[in-house]
Amino acid sequence: DGNRRYNDGQWHNIVATRQRAVGTITINLQYSGSASASSGSSIIGENMGLFIGGLPEDFALLRNDSGDTRLVRRGFSGCLRDISLKMSDSPAEEWEKLDWKKATKKVGVYESWEGCPLQTV
Predict the structure, then answer these.
(1) Do 103 and 68 lie in a common domain?
(2) What's the Rg (C-alpha) of the chain?
(3) Are residues 36 and 55 in the same domain?
(4) Looking at the whole model, is its pTM more than 0.70?
(5) Do 112 and 61 reside in the same domain of the chain?
(6) Which of 4, 42, 67, 103 has the fewest CB atoms below 10 angstroms from its CB?
(7) What is the pLDDT of residues 62-121, one digit of tens each?
């Protein structure tokens, strides 16, 4: 996408998927990129939860973390809405809206009635 910045005050559409060992991200139905798991494994492993916006500070990474496979530990700053998770592929795609009320922990979160702040940290 030519190193385009997305912190421009506009809403963007993001779709992130993983099919076996290949992860793909598509932005605004236009820019797309993908990469394979460094291990080549098609198994993600034990589900540690879903983290939206960043990882907890005490999150332990159980793999070698170097080079192109290095995890970026910079959190997301901005607003999110209309998040859906694909629950299954077969026999047909099944998507479920994320229920924010079920979140076990919220840090620096604004409720929907508060609106999206003009500037985030």
Answers:
(1) yes
(2) 16
(3) no
(4) no
(5) yes
(6) 67
(7) 766 666 666 666 667 777 788 888 888 788 888 888 887 777 777 777 777 777 766 555
Q: Please tell me whether residues 58 and 110 are part of one structural domain.
A: yes
Residue ranges making up the domain that contains 113: 47-121
Retrieve residue 12's tokens.
């963007």
CB 38 within 8 A of CB 69: yes
Assign 45 a pLDDT band (cuts: 50, 70, 90). low
Please write down the HEC assignment for all residues of the chain: CCCCCCCCCCCCCEEEEEECCEEEEEECCCEEEEEECCCCCCCCCCCCCCCCCCCCCCCCCCCCCCHHHCCCCCCCCCCCCCCEEEEECCCCCEEEECCHHHCCCCCCCCCHHHCCCCCCC
- Looking at the fold, whether 2 and 14 belong to one and the same domain comes out as yes
Q: Does one domain contain both 82 and 108?
A: yes
